[in-house]
Amino acid sequence: MKVGEKLEAKNLENLYGFDRLVRTEISTLIGLALKGPMDLSLPAPDTLQEYIEKTETLLHEIHEAMCAPWLAHLTPEKIKGGFDPFASGDSLREPIFYGSESAYGFQYRDFSVRKYQKDDEWIKKTKDFSIHTAREVVKAICDLQATKIPRVLDSFVDLPPEDWTLIEGFKFSVEELAAHAGITEETADAVVKAFAVPQGEINTEFQSLSDFNIANAFPLIPTSTGSFLLFQQYNILEALYESPYYWMTSDKAYWGTATKNRGLFTEEFCKQRLSQVFGNKHVFANVEIYESKGKRIGEIDVLVVFGNRSILLQAKSKKLTLEARKGNDLQIKDDFKKSVQDAYDQGLICAKALGNTQYKFVPKDGSPINLSAFKEIYIVCVVSDHYPALAFQARQFLKFETTDQIAPPFVMDIFTLDALTEMVSTPLQLLSYVNRRTRYTGRLMATNELTVLSYHLKYNLWLQDRYDMITLEDNFSIDLDAAMMVRREGFSGKATPDGVLTRLSKLSLGRLITSIEREPHPATIALGFMLLTIGEDSVRNISSGIDKIVGEAQKDGQHHDFTVAVGESDTGFTVHCNDYPKEISMARLRDYCQRRMYKQKAGTWFGVCLSPYDGELRFVVNLQNKWQYDKAMEAATRRMAAPSKMADILKKSRKKRKPGRNDPCSCGSGKKYKKCCLP
Questions:
Q1: In whole angstroms, what is the distance from residue 69 CA to residue 88 CA?
Q2: Sorting pLDDT into bands at 50, 70 and 90, what band is 293?
Q3: Among 281, 283, 289, 258, CA closest to 268
Q4: Distances, alpha carbon 198 to alpha carbons 99, 202, 486, 605, 651, in Å
Q5: Does the CA dihedral 667-669-672-676 come out positive or negative?
Q6: How crowded is the C-beta side of 532, counted as CA atoms within 13 Å?
């Protein structure tokens, strides 16, 4: 990857080309090379080219073989009959093997310390290094390669093409690693040996693509000269995150503790990430639910309460087994049940109890909490490890139910949760995203949740009703990839992709949404959800409309307002700007919204009152009702003008001039000015 002064999304486009090798293919090739003694001598150019062509042919045949089971079922007759070509284990081998990675390498590297911090004494005792030291050594190996490979490439200038080889760029010795990391050779050697292929061992178990591959568990390859090779950095970063658990499970006396700590890590990680967005006062851990004294019906791993919305998170640490990766139908479904379905089923029991006064909710570290009724409850199932094609499998296998309050489930791993809370870091923005992502469960397909998140950041996730199904390719992830690398790896560039987050930051509508998040009342949250779904032009026009009426109110001290219908007028909102006493202003705004809602035959209407001094939010009115004919309302709305179109907001405002005493009041009440808003 070539990067200029600043990292941009376009720098990552080549990583998603259809002709690229994916990580599992590279690991397969390394694993095959380790099935016997490795010869590092440089072949003749013709021989090397022949090897390359044969390898490409082999990889192509592997892909075709994996696609064959579901392609065989992809016939018009079977599809017409409702047959699902991906229902069998054989058909799932392809997305499991070729699905994009759900974790960034730096997440594996940095989360490893948090994952094993409670096990550090065991690691020190048995491996002679701490997990923090292991992280630093692994980072040093990657940094060392990053400096060596360019130097080797530069040396090609003085060599004939037949002598070109990058092998020296992938090599390192314990001595140079220790010097680069600033640690003793003994410590460096201890870490390297923990992740190196045991001396003399060959990859005998690797008989099929889904078998245990020693190249994944031990990515460092010893050479005959005492140096080591690392052909794929991602492998050692993943091994740093995964392997220590397997070291500990081999110790039967410690296995139970290791498993307990693994579960605690997942729950604590999820709570910390959600607390970063919602604040500690809105996030509760290990909430036990009691029907009566001593009768416990369930436990919520992490509960978020924000206004009348709730996130109910259940965490699991179960992995996809090797047998499942081979396409064993029963094992795939059993793994999924233990990893996701069980978490969801537990979450559903708890979700149905939320808001029910007959139950008591007791967090692990606090007094019982009082919960009122919720408008929406989101069940989030989180797994602690990379689970291949998780989004795809959730779509295939997860059995769930919904109610007016309980949304479809949101399934992810902790790496997605980390990226989501990193990028969508305010309560309203995150809830709005979860609301839409769960709403589109049956209409949106992607192999990876990071792809969907990246699409949202760039284009705002909003699917029109006329689309039954939308599939997102993995390359939509490049904007998120670049932003995360800027934030976590220190690259120079944009920390936030141009899109849904940046468009609001400097506009009055963005300030309004920020005000809503400070006061998480049901009406304001509902308004925020609506505002976050409107398009780019509408955002700018409404913001300009707000700026205009606030500016006019500051000049003349009078009431100013505008009304906008959203979409096809099923909803809309009215903005009032005045400093009347709240009880008067709220009554007038509510009265106007009721009439406007009736006039538009809308199901929802919002009223917003802003301060004329600084444009800050005073209060919000939210009305929802099914339209019915009403003779009195017909008379009251007969002369109401149509609401403004978005593009007209800048051209006019309802306050043209100061009304006369006997003129109709500008607030739209239908009364004379002297009997309404005249001070």
A1: 9
A2: confident
A3: 283
A4: 30, 9, 37, 68, 76
A5: negative
A6: 31
